[in-house]
Write a structure and sequence with these properties.
The chain is an alpha/beta fold and about 425 residues long. It folds into two domains: about 170 residues, Aspartate Aminotransferase, domain 1, CATH 3.90.1150; about 230 residues, Aspartate Aminotransferase, domain 2, CATH 3.40.640.10. The protein is built from 14 helices and 14 strands. It is globular, with a radius of gyration of 22 Å. The N and C termini lie far apart (about 50 Å). The chain binds pyridoxal-5'-phosphate (PLP).
Length: about 425
């Protein structure tokens, strides 16, 4: 090319959750069946969307207008429904005008960072959901700035670390939380969200709260949305149907803007996000049309409760087994369908391995030459047992070494076998 056509932030775009799939496919060719524990797609993992939801979708496809574009912000009646439901929960009150639909939250995340001034930085959790951390890093062409979620303290955010970094870096303009969190399953207590809102107020920042799992918080988790405590601080909540319905293939999510009227600069930023969505015309129409019909159905919340009870049961089993390993830190998640194990310092070494077929060893070795220690474990686990989990360091932009797995497996016996195999692999790897 006569001039460089590669964006300066291009090398910051990483999504190990899917990158590992190519390696797993090679392992599968060698005759080892793969247990997919990497991608948080409930449907791919065997969750059958309820017949009544499918019926609503089928009936909706009979309407000619679902084949049409929708308004840029999203269907009026759907945004009105969401605003009404939001307002019934108390906290900040919004209108349909404060809501903007996207083709999934992946699309929303991309718009949020793309439209941010390149100098403005958003501080996010470590470990981080990679779409946020990679998009933020690419937008600024600098490593993502993080605050610690503390594995030694039940994954609570280290607020002192957060404040110290905000004070030290004047470019930080916003804080992101993921609640319930991916990858840890941590649910932010309301008091903690209040403290984060207070920090935002003190340093004149805005808050992004990714609440895609908010309706999948476990019973008794104390889950409260940002809207309940945001007060007068500018903020953006992100929601979607990928995990809830579950319908990730619909590509449907939305953002709720809070307190646009309280800060001119935040209002201009929100306006630019709407303007950039306008250039794309609109988001997918069918799922927006279906959304209020499904969410207002009396079967909806009991259905979600049944699912979260199932996830919690898996979490209890995994916690019981993995917490017995002396080298691993685990906490029982309070929401979503992920769980994370952290290796204690000193447990992992460059010399460790698991028994692997010769041809697979030759295949994975080049990947491991410069790999982090948790990635070495994850690749050996994959090549040796076929279990495909995601390393924390490279998969979730984390300074701690560990791995994330799913609580989505429908078959409890299969799930138990997977967890038992992971536990044995960790023990064998540690003494190899
Ligand atoms: C925290 C979080 N935010 C956003 C997304 C993206 O969801 P969507 O399917 O709406 O793009 C995911 C998907 O895994 C997620 O875990």
């Amino acid at each position: 090319m006569r001039s460089n056509i590669v964006h300066p932030g291009a090398d910051k775009l990483r999504y190990e959750i899917r990158e590992i799939v190519a390696v797993a496919k090679r392992v599968s060719v060698a005759g080892i069946p793969i247990t997919w524990e990497n991608i948080g797609d409930p449907v791919a993992k065997g969750e059958v969307p309820p017949a009544w939801i499918k019926k609503i979708i089928q009936d909706t496809t009979k309407e000619d207008l679902i084949f049409a574009y929708s308004p840029t912000k999203g269907l009026e009646e759907t945004r009105e429904y969401i605003a009404r439901e939001r307002n019934l929960e108390g906290g900040i009150q919004i209108t349909a005008e404060d809501i903007l639909f996207f083709n999934g939250l992946g699309d929303a995340i991309s718009h949020l960072y793309r439209n941010l001034n390149p100098r403005a930085r958003i501080i996010g959790p470590d470990p981080a959901y990679p779409t946020h951390s990679s998009s933020e890093a690419a937008h600024s062409d600098k490593p993502h700035i993080t605050y610690r979620l503390d594995p030694e303290n039940g994954w609570r955010p280290d607020l002192a670390d957060m404040e110290q970094k905000i004070r030290a870096n004047k470019d930080i303009a916003g804080i992101i939380i993921i609640n319930p969190d991916n990858p840890t399953g941590f649910v932010y207590p309301q008091e903690t969200i209040k403290s984060i809102v207070a920090l935002a107020k003190k340093y004149k920042l805005f808050i992004i709260s990714d609440e895609i799992y908010s309706n999948l918080a476990f019973e008794g988790s104390g889950m409260r949305k940002l809207a309940s405590v945001i007060g007068s601080v500018p903020g953006i909540a992100m929601r979607g149907i990928s995990k809830e319905f579950p319908w990730p293939g619909a590509r449907c999510g939305w953002v709720e803007f809070y307190n646009r009227d309280k800060d001119k600069n935040f209002d201009a930023y929100a306006h630019s996000i709407v303007a950039s969505k306008t250039l794309e015309v609109c988001s997918t129409t069918l799922p927006q049309r279906v959304l209020p019909k499904v969410m207002s159905d009396p079967r909806y919340y009991p259905y979600l409760a049944e699912r979260t009870r199932r996830y919690e049961k898996k979490a209890v089993y995994a916690h019981e087994v993995l917490s017995k390993l002396p080298g691993l830190i685990v906490h029982k998640p309070q929401g979503a369908f992920y769980m994370t194990g952290v290796f204690k310092k000193g447990l992992l070494k460059k010399t460790q391995s698991l028994p692997v077929k010769v041809e697979l060893k030759k295949f994975i070795d080049p990947y491991l030459a410069k790999a982090s220690l948790d990635k070495r474990f994850v690749y050996y686990l994959l090549a040796s047992t076929g279990i495909c989990v995601v390393p924390l360091s490279s998969g979730f932009n984390s300074s701690v070494q560990g791995f994330r797995f799913l609580l989505l497996e429908r078959d409890m016996e299969k799930f138990k076998k997977t967890i038992d195999t992971i536990a044995k692999a960790i023990s064998d790897f540690a003494v190899s």
